[in-house]
Amino acid sequence: MYETGKIGFERGWLCGMIVAVACWGQGFAHAGGSYIPDIGVRALGRAGAVVVGADDLMALHYNPAALTRLRKTSFFVDVAAVSAPVKFQRAPGIFRPDGEAIDPDRIFPEVENQASRRIIPSLLMGSSLEQFGCEECAVAFGLYGPYNAAFEYPADGPQRYAIVKSGSTQVMLTAAFARPITSWLKIGLSGSAVYVGLIQDLIFQASKNGIEDPSEDLILSANLGDWTWAYGGGLLIQPVDWIEFGLSAQSRISFHVTGNLTATAPQLGNISIDLPAETEGALPAIYRAGVLLRPFRGLELEADIVRYTWSNFGEFVIEFQGELGDTLDPVVLVNNYQDVWNPRFGVEYKGLRRLRLRAGMQFEEAAVPLETVSVSGVSGAKTIVTAGLTYDFGFWDVDFAYANIAVGKRETDVSRAQMINLMGPSTVIGNGTYEMAANIIAVGIHFYPGRDRDDL
Fold it and tell me: What is the pLDDT of residue 62?
């Protein structure tokens, strides 16, 4: 606790917290640029090219109409391990807020993401409704989240004013229903309760001259979260046996999360200030279209195109709760995120009796401009290469998939990322070179009670 005689200091901290909250919010938006919404071990093996060919319960995420393929009750569990090796080489030099060089030859050490692999589970169940007289109808329920990574960097590293630790949590509790309309047209609908959680630690300062000084570092920790809603739908069109088309859409996930921010000054006996806050934003709407070819028995070739509406992050708004909400205006950040196209291609061979093989590739444009790229999530042009397999043990299927995500190196000298300084203007600390890759390993088990060989 702090003494009441330190009113000026308290007000200074309050101003600093406002600025810090703004920068924290921008950091989460950056993390959105490296967000990977593809999930499910079988889908991963085909690089997410399953808007038409989904043959398991993860159809409720990609295209719920594909649940019409479900013939028996089934259960599915998978676990994915996600890592994101990120490197940041900050540009040389320390400068005043006006750009004047203080130490133009200062060389900073390269920093790397030190976070361990993030373990993300999924649990789904579903059943055909044929026993109730609705042929090819099905329902499914799922608890899952996207395959996103955690980020952690040295507390005294040159990136500390943007991020020390960062992570976002998205949990989707989804229900879906599918049914045929005609022999060649199937439809499906889904609804989700979605938990969005935001966690971030970073450093800010109280510097009169706006020049970074490690002896004046202050620690900001943020932890916010809440539930929201989303919905989706899709259709399958199969005019002949050897070709099939699919369309699906998932609504944007608007969130308004609340929680607490804590600022601590280690050099002043660890005095701290707590500030309730709330943040709103939206994860992108997703639109998918695909075509699947079956040139001969057992082989599927699929090409999809996916659209992510990242321009939802054109603005990021932070509001304050309690008495502060009556006196402080919301903080509005301009990020200029861009919508992106994501073509993907997948192949699956099912002609080896109990063994099925998959592979795929996808490409994605950079959603984040150079002015706002950040170490909290290095967004860039992505190339994703995947492989997977399934082995049938009768009532059980075991699935495996691996994905390598390569992100093009990005170098910027036009960064708008500044050190957070509660005393006024501060220097830019975001210029430099960013490199990122990611690796995903997923293992899944499908259980089909009552399945027989005629179901395969």
Answer: 97
Spatial contact of 282 and 254, defined as CB atoms under 8 Å apart: yes
Go through the chain and tell me how many residues it has: 456
Contact 365, 340 (CB under 8 A): yes
In single-letter form, the type of residue at position 261 comes to L
To the nearest 5 percent, what fractions of the chain are helix, strand and coil? 15, 50, 35
- Round to whole Å and give the CA distance between 43 and 65: 15
Q: Can you tell me whether residue 456 is helix, strand or coil?
A: coil
Chain segment 381-394, per-residue pLDDT in tens: 899 999 999 999 98
pLDDT at 366 over 50: yes
- DSSP state for residue 310 in the 8-state scheme: G
Which domains are present in the chain?
A: 7-455 (2.40.160.60)
Dihedral Cα 149, 92, 13, 371, nearest 10 deg: -60
For the cut 70, the answer to whether the pLDDT of residue 216 exceeds it is yes
pTM of the full structure: 0.88
Q: Which of 1, 108, 65 lies closest to 247, judged by CA?
A: 65
| Tokens representing residue 305 in the block | 């195109």
Dmax over CA atoms of the chain, in Å, equals 81
Compute, in degrees rounded to 10, the torsion defined by CA atoms 424, 430, 432, 438.
160
- What integer is the mean pLDDT of 237-258? 93
Quote the tokens at residue 180. Answer: 């045929």
CA dihedral 46, 48, 51, 55 (to 10 degrees): 50
Per-residue pLDDT at 268 exceeds 70:
no
Look up tokens 């950079």; give the residue: 366
CB environment 92-122: b (16+ within 10 A), e (fewer): eebbebeeeeeeeeeebeebbbebeebebeb
Q: Which two tokens stand for residue 175?
A: 């229900």
Strand bridging mode 243-250 / 253-265? unpaired
Alpha carbon distance, N-terminus to C-terminus of the chain: 66
**Distance from C-alpha of 265 to C-alpha of 217, rounded to nearest angstrom:** 7
Per-range mean pLDDT, top range of 183-197, 257-271, 300-314: 183-197
And the tokens for 316? 């990021």
State the pLDDT at residue 421.
79
258/238 Cα distance (integer angstroms) = 46
Residue 258's SS3 state is strand
Could you tell me which residue, 266 or 238, shows the higher pLDDT? 238
